[in-house]
TrEMBL record:
Family in the record: Belongs to the class-I fumarase family.
Domain Fe-S hydro-lyase tartrate dehydratase alpha-type catalytic span(s) in chain numbering: 9-282
The organism of origin for this protein: Nisaea acidiphila
NCBIfam families, A to Z: ttdA_fumA_fumB
Name of the molecule in the record: Fumarate hydratase
UniProt entry keywords in alphabetical sequence: 4Fe-4S, Iron, Iron-sulfur, Lyase, Metal-binding
GO molecular function: 4 iron, 4 sulfur cluster binding; lyase activity; metal ion binding
InterPro entries registered for this protein in UniProt: Class-I_Fumarase/Tartrate_DH (IPR051208), Fe-S_hydro-lyase_TtdA-typ_cat (IPR004646)
Keyword Iron recorded: yes
Length: 320
């Protein structure tokens, strides 16, 4: 049985980790970009980012003044038992958000859309968001928090089958150029692409692709993996670098996730994560152990299953 108090304490701790500590995979990606950037202002921004990361880590405070809007992704093992059930889990996550907003501190960004009511703790109606997935043959619960900017860096377009790969590339370039010219994203960033599904699923997949996969991770479909690398190269070839200055540092990595869609369409969403890539994960075991990491491992083989029933593929068994 996983105790409610353990859930709240673990969530509280990953809020600190996400708000302050830059994941190693993203940090390595930024360092690689900084070493290759030849645009003067873009290179200056990248070096300043790296200095800010170190200062934030040393001072134990958020690197960016806009700490985004906290949200959670919960992956529950099918055999997991939670004290008080999922209602208690959600109460624990909301409490951890309120406490961490005050203690880190995080900027209290959440307000009512009409009345602008502000509880000063990032908690309110449908806030923080909590998304769920499940995993067979497991008795643990993974909790990931992501602090993503909540205003810009997102776009959607209904493409059609005839648009093909060229249409995907065209929309990707349109989005990257618009993000850079209009200041709609903080480059460089991990860019997520959602392809297919219904419109809402398409948007969800794209955001998860941006926020829940690590730099260097490739989609298991080799053709999709190839397209990820092509889009990353395209994004870095439009003449824009860090913060939209002249350069070649727009996309730290590109991740694509897909969902089966209506036969007549090919919806596509585009999402740029924040330049601080704020995410952290904890696994809670029934025996009270907690394990912290920065790779959410959200897109498991089970999550990407195509068939009605589930049996782990032999390749996944070998890597497990």
């Amino acid at each position: 049985m996983i105790a409610k108090e353990a859930v709240e304490q673990a969530a509280y701790e990953i809020m600190f980790k996400a708000g302050i500590d830059i994941p190693d995979d993203y940090l390595a990606g930024i360092k690689q970009m900084a070493s290759a950037e030849d645009g003067d202002l873009s290179a200056f921004v990248l070096e300043a980012m790296l200095e800010n990361y170190e200062a934030a880590k040393e001072d134990r405070r958020p690197m960016c003044a806009d700490t985004g809007v906290p949200r959670y992704y919960v992956k529950a093992g099918n055999e997991a038992k939670l004290e008080g059930g999922f209602i208690a889990l959600e109460e624990a996550l909301r409490s951890a958000t309120a406490r961490a907003t005050h203690d880190i501190p995080l900027r209290p960004n959440r307000v009512h859309p009409l009345w602008r009511t502000d509880h000063n703790n990032n908690v309110g109606i449908n806030a923080p968001e909590i998304e769920y997935s499940f995993e067979p043959d497991a008795d643990w619960v993974d909790i990931t928090t992501v602090h993503k900017g909540g205003l810009f860096g997102t776009d959607y377009r209904m493409l059609f089958p005839g648009d093909g790969i060229d249409g995907i590339k065209r929309f990707f370039l349109d989005g990257m150029i618009a993000f850079g010219k209009r200041g709609l994203a903080c480059q460089p960033a991990i860019v997520g692409v959602g392809l297919g599904g219904s419109k809402d699923t398409c948007m969800v997949l794209g955001k998860q692709a941006a926020c829940l996969r690590t730099v260097g991770d490739r989609n298991p479909d080799p053709k999709i993996a190839e397209l990820e690398l092509e889009l990353q190269e395209l994004g870095n070839s439009i003449g824009m670098g860090a913060m939209g200055f002249v350069g070649k540092s727009m996309v730290v990595d590109c991740h694509i996730e897909v969902g089966y869609t209506h036969t007549g369409g090919m919806p596509m969403s585009l999402h740029a994560f924040c330049l601080s890539s704020r995410r952290a994960t904890v696994r809670l075991h029934a025996d009270g152990r907690t394990e912290f990491r920065t790779d959410p491992n959200w897109f498991t083989p089970y999550m990407r299953r195509e068939s009605v029933s589930w049996e782990m593929p032999a390749s996944a068994k070998r890597s497990a």
